[in-house]
Every structure is written in structure tokens, then in C-alpha cells.
Amino acid sequence: RREPLALVNLKKKHEETGEEELASRLDHCKAKATRHIFLIRHSQYNLDGRADKDRTLTPLGREQAELTGRRLASLGLKFDQIIHSSMTRASETTEIISKHLPGVKKISTDLLREGAPIEPDPPVSHWKPEAVQYYEDGARIEAAFRNFIHRADAKQEEDSYEIFVCHANVIRYIVCRALQFPPEGWLRLSLNNGSITHLVIRPNGRVALRTLGDTGFMPPDKITRT
């Protein structure tokens, strides 16, 4: 509902307003800027941790986050903010990345926590969460998509560059939704730890995928998918 026609109350278009005023109102609601969304998967973490607080980054995971932070800094972009999942592995990845991007504000959110977004099709034998998990996590992850992945606000004058540090399931679902692909296919995508996925959202709402799960900036012996 960010198309200009969806933002203008057409009921107010009386005979005396005319087409010119309607055109002016529509123009006022049009986005002008492009949003660049960088989706970062957290680095390798301790899989043996029972609780989230115990699932901290491994030494290799911390190295991966350093490499991702350096890569983002090397792009020479003026990042507006880093929004990250409130889970431990995403928060720790964010802290390391942010050292390379001084002054960029960090925002934590529960919406981006890991979960089961939608039942995959075709199904897989090694991962079968309870059906209720899809209803609980799916609604939240869909809310994250709607909340964060959209064209720029009409008031935004300049292009923006935003970083989201979260999880593989969340990123894969968001990519499918943003590209208007069947979201049930999210599990067919694979993302390395610390990888960078770059979405571009134009003022007219069109979306382009620049990179998916890029880890070309990491040495081969540092790449993992755990």
C-alpha cells in the first residue's frame, strides 16, 4: 500500500478539484529515493549451546564477522543504520561489524529472530518443525518483511543504505517475498555464515537482487554454512 493511488483519498476528488490537483497530490506521495538493503547472515556460532545466550560466536565466527565488517566498510557507502535480530549470535556479529562502521546506529528487534517462516515445498526429511511453529514464526517473519522491505517514504530525499543482521531462514524468506517468488521455495537457497545479500528497492517499488549470499571476500578456509 505504498503506491501513490493507495495513499490518496480519492473520495475527496470532487468536481471542483480537477485532474491537476489530483496529479499534484499523487506526485506528493511518490517516492524519490532508492533503498539499498544489505542482509547479513550471522557468523558461525556454538551449536552445542542449549539456550540462546549460550549460542555465542566461535573464534572462526568472530573472524568471519571481522571480514564482513571490513567488506562493508570498503564499499565506501554512508550506511544509515544497522537493524539486527535480538538473538545472541546476531547481536555479537553486529557488534563486530559495527566496529568497522563507526557512528552507524544499531537497533535490536525481535521480529528478525530465527524461525520457521513457511512450510517448504518440496519438504525436506532432516528438518521438520512442529506445525504450530510455522504459524507463530511465519506471522512474525512476514511482519518483519512488511515492516522493513518496502520502497522509500515520499519524504526521503536521498538514497539510503541499511544493514540487517539476522538469520538464514529469515533472509531466504525475505528474498523470495521481495522478488515475488513462491515463498515456499525459500529452503532451496543456501547462505554462508557472514554472507552479504544486497536488495535494491526503486522508488516505483521494483526490486532487484544485486548479490545473494556473497562471501567472495573471505578466504576459502574461512567459509562455513553451519
Automatic annotation (TrEMBL):
Catalytic EC class: hydrolase
Molecular function terms, GO-annotated: protein serine/threonine phosphatase activity
One GO BP annotation of this record: positive regulation of mitochondrial fission
Top-rank lineage group of the source organism: Eukaryota
Catalytic activity: O-phospho-L-threonyl-[protein] + H2O = L-threonyl-[protein] + phosphate; O-phospho-L-seryl-[protein] + H2O = L-seryl-[protein] + phosphate
EC numbers: 3.1.3.16
Principal subcellular localisation of the protein: mitochondrion
Keywords of this entry: Hydrolase, Membrane, Mitochondrion, Mitochondrion outer membrane, Necrosis
An example Gene Ontology CC term for this record: mitochondrial outer membrane
Subcellular location: Mitochondrion outer membrane
Keyword Secreted: no
A Pfam match: His_Phos_1
Family label: Belongs to the phosphoglycerate mutase family. BPG-dependent PGAM subfamily.
Protein name: Serine/threonine-protein phosphatase PGAM5, mitochondrial
Origin organism lineage: Eukaryota, Metazoa, Chordata, Craniata, Vertebrata
Gene: Pgam5
